[in-house]
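Students often ask why we bother encoding 3D structure as a string. The short answer is that it lets us treat folding as translation between two languages. Here is a chain of 327 residues written in the first language.
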Amino acid sequence: MTTPAAERGTTTVADRAVRRIAERAATEALAPGAVEVSRGSATVRGRRAQVGVTVSLPYPAVLDEAGESVRSHVAERTARLTGLTVPSARIRVRRLSRRERSAGQPAPPVAASDSAGAAPARAHRPWSQRRLPVAVFALAAAAACAVLLFDVVSVHAADRAPARWRVETLEWLSTHGPDPTTSGALAALAVFALGVWLLVVAVTPGRRSGLPMRPPLPGVRAVLERRAVAVFLRDAVTDVPGVGRVRVRVGRRTARVRAGLQFGEPNGARRAVTEAAEGATAGLGLARPLRLRVRLKTEPAWRAPGPGIESGSGPGSGPAAAERSTP
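And here it is in the second language, the structure alphabet:
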């Protein structure tokens, strides 16, 4: 007698297996060895799976194009190998690694919006999941409800006396009103501050460290960390001849670059530093361009170049700092 296929049992794919498949698929998305995987996550619910991978992408590259390639490949490859439905994959770019491109390796792709000079698309910062505060609040509320429920059930079902703490609490609440002392005011202020904080957490997106990027496809959202932007700018400015120490600070709207000039003519070096910073920010694929504030300051060991290099850079010019803002 043959047992129907529906009654033979079920095949369950573990979260760990799906995670490893997604991590391996991420390394196959681009050129061999181009993508490095730091960690991954996977959650299987029935026939659907949610996967996420934290990767390191090669530099230089168009991040939205490279990120979309990794995301689509991870989702498609994981769904094909596991037989599960993978609606999408979450890709988090942790860092960028600079590698020398071989002679046979093609240049990184250029987005169509960049080549056509189109205006950047409007994108919003993604909402933070805030797992830690939600988990702490949920555990505390669950523990309090569990203790109260246990006491109520034991009183009505097992005919036991109510817990002493509940009786004393009800007696105190029935005979006391709001505490007018300083401790009562401080407790009320703490509860009020907690409520305001919960409201702010509920209505704000959070994740202030991420800068939204231009969406490569409808429904796809990409974010670039400020730390990665600072690394881009610092590497680009450091390549300028004569520039030594470079400090970069990236905000939500503005990027401040502070560079020290060790040798060379200040005006020409300032123009080169500004052009290098502008070129680096233009290739990031951000939805809203950053306002650059570039400041070049001569180092103590700097000496003015010879009079034949450029006018206005003789010994009388001396060490000076110049600042320029670009939209």
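Translate back mentally: Confidence is low (pLDDT under 50) at residues 101-105, 107-121, 309-327. Keep this in mind for the problem set.
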